[in-house]
Amino acid sequence: MIAFLEQLRPHHEELRRRLLVSALAVAACTGVAWLFIDQIAAFSLRPLLENAQPGKLVYTRLTDAFISYLKLALLCGITVSFPFLLYQAWMFAAPGLLAHEKRLVRRIICWSGGLFLVGAFFAFFIVLPRTLAFFMSYAGENLRPMLKLNLYLAFAARLVLAFAVSFEIPFLMVMAAAAGLVQRSHFQHKRKFFYIAIVVLAFLLAAGDLAATVLLALPLFGLYEAGIIAMKIFVQTQAAAS
User: Mean pLDDT throughout 147-161?
Assistant: First the structure.
C-alpha cells in the first residue's frame, strides 16, 4: 500500500502544481478585469440599455453592487484564462495518452475552446438583445420595470454560458463518434430522452422562467440535430477515405 502511494505521489504533485498555476492565472485575469470593472460593467449593460431602455438599474442592499462587480470580474477572469486552463489540463493528461489519443485530445481542446467563445459572442451580441427586448416589451404606462443589477447580470451570465456550452454539442458528438465511444444511431434512437434533458437544463439555466426556457431550448434542439447530421457526414467521409 505504501509503495502504491509512493507511485502516485508524482501525479499528485503534478496535479497540485497544475491546479495552483490555473488558480493563479484566474486570479491574475480577475485582478486585471477588476481594474477595468467600470468599463466592463458598462459593456455588459449595453444590450439592456440599447434594446430595452429600462432607465437606471437599482440595487437594494449595500453589498449588491460590490458583489455583482466582483462576480463579473471573476467571470471575465475565467473566460479570458479558459484557453490556458485547457492547456494545463492537456499538459497533465498528455503523458498518459497514446499518440493517436494525444492528437484527438489536442483537437478537442482547440475546437472546444473556439466554439465556447463563438457561442458566448453569439449569445451576447445576438440572442441577449432580442431576449431582453422581448421581456421588456411587457412594460407600459401602468407597468414600469425596476431591474436589479445583480439579477440582470445573473440572467445575462446564465444565457451566455448556456449558449457557450451548447455550441460545443455538435462537435462533441462528432468527436465521440470519432473516438468510437458511441454510434450515430444512439443519438437518433434516444432523441426523446436527450430532448427531455435539454428542456430540464434550459429550465434550470432560465431559473424557472417558462418563456426563457423555450428561448433556450429551441436552439439546443437545433444544435442537437446539427450534431446528428455532422456525425453522418463524418461517417461518410471516413468511409470514403478508407
Answer: 84
